[in-house]
Amino acid sequence: MAIQCCPICLAEVAENPRYPDHLCSECARRAVDADGRPLKFHNTSLSGGFEAIYADDNTPAETVTRDRIVFVDGAQCVADEARFGGIIICPKS
Question: Which residues in 8-30 are b (16+ Cβ under 10 Å) and which e?
Protein backbone atom coordinates (compact mmCIF):
# COMPACT_ATOMS: atom_id res chain seq x y z
CA MET A 1 0.00 0.00 0.00
CA ALA A 2 1.37 3.40 -0.94
CA ILE A 3 1.65 6.09 1.69
CA GLN A 4 1.84 9.83 1.87
CA CYS A 5 2.58 12.15 4.79
CA CYS A 6 0.34 14.40 6.84
CA PRO A 7 1.35 17.98 6.00
CA ILE A 8 1.10 19.04 9.65
CA CYS A 9 2.93 16.34 11.63
CA LEU A 10 4.50 14.31 8.79
CA ALA A 11 2.92 11.07 10.04
CA GLU A 12 2.36 8.45 7.37
CA VAL A 13 -1.20 8.23 6.09
CA ALA A 14 -2.82 6.01 3.48
CA GLU A 15 -2.35 7.34 -0.03
CA ASN A 16 -5.33 9.17 -1.45
CA PRO A 17 -4.71 10.54 -4.96
CA ARG A 18 -7.79 12.78 -4.72
CA TYR A 19 -6.52 14.36 -1.47
CA PRO A 20 -2.72 14.14 -1.62
CA ASP A 21 -2.30 16.61 1.24
CA HIS A 22 -5.01 15.42 3.67
CA LEU A 23 -4.37 15.58 7.40
CA CYS A 24 -3.99 12.50 9.54
CA SER A 25 -6.79 11.71 11.99
CA GLU A 26 -4.76 12.92 14.98
CA CYS A 27 -4.19 16.34 13.43
CA ALA A 28 -7.81 16.52 12.24
CA ARG A 29 -8.94 16.02 15.85
CA ARG A 30 -7.06 19.20 16.81
CA ALA A 31 -9.03 21.41 14.40
CA VAL A 32 -10.26 24.67 15.93
CA ASP A 33 -12.08 27.74 14.64
CA ALA A 34 -10.49 31.20 14.33
CA ASP A 35 -11.18 31.81 18.04
CA GLY A 36 -9.53 28.55 19.10
CA ARG A 37 -12.71 26.62 19.91
CA PRO A 38 -12.39 22.88 19.25
CA LEU A 39 -14.48 21.45 16.44
CA LYS A 40 -16.10 18.20 15.38
CA PHE A 41 -17.42 17.45 11.91
CA HIS A 42 -19.98 15.14 10.40
CA ASN A 43 -22.01 14.49 7.28
CA THR A 44 -25.56 15.81 7.55
CA SER A 45 -27.17 12.75 5.95
CA LEU A 46 -26.35 9.37 4.45
CA SER A 47 -26.02 11.06 1.07
CA GLY A 48 -23.44 13.55 2.33
CA GLY A 49 -23.41 17.17 3.39
CA PHE A 50 -21.10 18.91 5.84
CA GLU A 51 -21.59 20.38 9.28
CA ALA A 52 -19.18 21.64 11.90
CA ILE A 53 -20.09 21.72 15.57
CA TYR A 54 -18.24 22.99 18.61
CA ALA A 55 -16.77 20.07 20.53
CA ASP A 56 -17.10 21.83 23.89
CA ASP A 57 -20.91 22.25 23.82
CA ASN A 58 -22.15 20.51 20.61
CA THR A 59 -23.66 23.71 19.19
CA PRO A 60 -23.49 24.44 15.46
CA ALA A 61 -20.33 26.20 14.26
CA GLU A 62 -22.19 28.09 11.55
CA THR A 63 -19.24 30.18 10.33
CA VAL A 64 -17.10 27.07 9.89
CA THR A 65 -19.95 25.17 8.21
CA ARG A 66 -20.36 28.06 5.77
CA ASP A 67 -16.71 29.01 5.14
CA ARG A 68 -14.99 25.65 5.85
CA ILE A 69 -11.91 27.42 7.33
CA VAL A 70 -10.29 25.73 10.34
CA PHE A 71 -6.89 25.86 12.00
CA VAL A 72 -4.66 23.00 13.06
CA ASP A 73 -1.55 23.88 15.05
CA GLY A 74 -1.78 27.41 13.62
CA ALA A 75 -1.99 26.26 9.98
CA GLN A 76 -5.03 27.46 8.04
CA CYS A 77 -6.90 24.50 6.58
CA VAL A 78 -10.13 23.68 4.79
CA ALA A 79 -12.55 21.08 6.15
CA ASP A 80 -15.12 19.68 3.76
CA GLU A 81 -17.16 16.70 2.76
CA ALA A 82 -15.05 14.02 1.10
CA ARG A 83 -16.20 12.82 -2.31
CA PHE A 84 -17.54 9.47 -1.14
CA GLY A 85 -18.57 10.51 2.35
CA GLY A 86 -16.76 11.40 5.51
CA ILE A 87 -14.86 14.59 6.19
CA ILE A 88 -11.49 15.59 4.82
CA ILE A 89 -9.21 18.36 6.06
CA CYS A 90 -6.41 19.76 3.91
CA PRO A 91 -4.14 22.80 4.20
CA LYS A 92 -5.59 25.87 2.51
CA SER A 93 -3.71 26.53 -0.71
Answer: beeeebeeeeebebbbbeebbeb
